[in-house]
Every structure is written in C-alpha cells, then in structure tokens.
Amino acid sequence: MKTILAFGDSLTWGYNPETALRHEFFDRWPNVVGRALGHKVRVISEGLNGRTTAFDEDFVAADRNGARVLPTLLASHQPLDLVVIMLGTNDLKRSTGGGRVFESRQGLERLVEIVQCFPYQRGYEAPKLLLVAPPPFCETMEPDFALLFGHAVEESIHFRSAVTKVAEEYGCAMFDAGEVCETSPLDGVHLDAENTRRLGEALVGPVRELLDLGD
C-alpha cells in the first residue's frame, strides 16, 4: 500500500461556500482520490482553512504557516510515497504574502525544499511531489471575501505559471486545478461539491502514474 499526504488549505479541507461548513466526506478531493484507488493507497488529508505556504497569521488560534507545520507532518506520517501540495490561495491576502503570486511561489519553493531535504528515518526515501496550482479566483458579491481577495482576482491567474516554474526547477510533477474546476461566485475562492469532486477525479490519473499503480 502506498501512502499519500495531501497538504493544503480550505480547498483540501473541503470548505463549502454555500454553508461555510465542510463538504461531505466523499466530496472532498483527497477522499475522491482514495476511494478511486481503493486498497492500493492510503490518503492522509491535511487541509487547514487559511493555511499559507510560509506566512504567519497571528490573529487565529491554529498555526497557518505551512512551512512551520510541514516538517512535523512529514515526521509523523512517514514513510510517505507521495506528497501532494495545493497551497497559495491564502498567500494572496495582503496580510500574508502581500497579494502577489511571486511571494506565493517563494513560499512553495520552501515547502518543496522541506520535503526533499527532510531527514527521514534511516531506510526511508524522500517522497515524490505533486504540486497543484490552485484555481483562479472569480468575482464575488460576498462582502468579506471581496475585501480579502477581490484585489487579487487578476493576480490569481498567474498561479499556473508560478507553480509550473517551481515544478520544473525542482523536478516535481505539476497539475493545474484551473483546467478542471472553477471557484464559486458565492465567495470567489472556494469550490462547490461538484468542482471539488471533479478535482479529485482529475488527480486520480496523475497519482496513479506517479506511484506506478497500473490500471
């Protein structure tokens, strides 16, 4: 059995823009992947609302800095065969990454370095990496989310190119979520149930290939 760590933010946690609660278990994309691949894999879902690549948000209870939390997760869940990282959305807040994809790219590079260079238990190798570019934002009339992310709708289009650049430089696989799903106009950044399922279904093929699982 192969072990996969799905490391992300609210898009991985399964935030429902209709209710502000959580999607049903099998609507969340990590569980869609796990269900499709069955006994061949174990998918560990590590999604947290508001998580950034490497930036602090000190006014919340949970530690949202992905770079600070990731080493503990790698140690806790090893041995790992694959780490899937989908982060960057929350870096575009002005209070974290300054609202630019450039800073998000730098944070993603740090996460990749952590995975590739972590001192795993003797006998365990570094896992493979799949970087998933978040889908671009869309316009929303929801006042709080418009204030948080409205300035970055155009900027979010650059997620694909930024993540592609990191993947090429560090020898990782890459997938663009924007090719298969769209954010909801209810808040401009999250996925409804259909779109998060669609993302999981689209990731089954790349994951199967990376882990050499066959058909």
UniProtKB/TrEMBL annotation:
Family matches, as InterPro entries: SGNH_hydro, SGNH_hydro_sf
Domain of life: Bacteria
GO molecular function, one term: hydrolase activity, acting on ester bonds
All copies of domain SGNH hydrolase-type esterase, residue ranges: 6-191
Protein name: Lysophospholipase L1
Organism listed in the record: Fulvimarina manganoxydans
